[in-house]
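From the shared-data thread, chain only:
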Amino acid sequence: MIAGELCTRKIVMVAQEATALEAAKLMLEHKVGCVVVVEKKMRGNVPIGIVTERDLVLKIVAGDARAGAIGITAVMSEKLMTAREDESVFDVLQRMHTKSIRHMPVMNAQEELIGILAADDVLAFFAKEGGDFLHK
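Structure, as C-alpha cells:
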C-alpha cells in the first residue's frame, strides 16, 4: 500500500502569519490533530511547517504563554518531513517512528500537498482490515 491511498485528503492549512490561537481554533473546528503551516507562493500553498496538538501543549500551555500573542512559526516544527504519495506506507511509518512523529504531510510528484498521513489513520486501517479478515 502507498501513502497516497491511505492519507487523509482533508488538509487544514494555516498561513505563516497566523497565531497559535488561530491554529488551535482551526484544529477544534475541523476536529484534526494538526495543521500544516503554508507560505503562499505563485504555484500555490507551499508547506513550511506543521503544528500538532502536542506542539501547542508543550510550547504554549506548559510555557504559560498567550496563544493569541504568539505567531504560528514560533510553535511549528520547521524541519518538515514529507512523504511522496507513491511511497510505501511501511517506509513512511519507519521514518515516522524513527523521528517520533505522528503526522506526515503527503506530496505529489509536482511537490503539491495532497494529504496528511497520521499514525492513527494507519492503525485504524489495519484494525479494520484485521477485523474483516478475522470475520471471514
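The chain has a mean pLDDT of 88.
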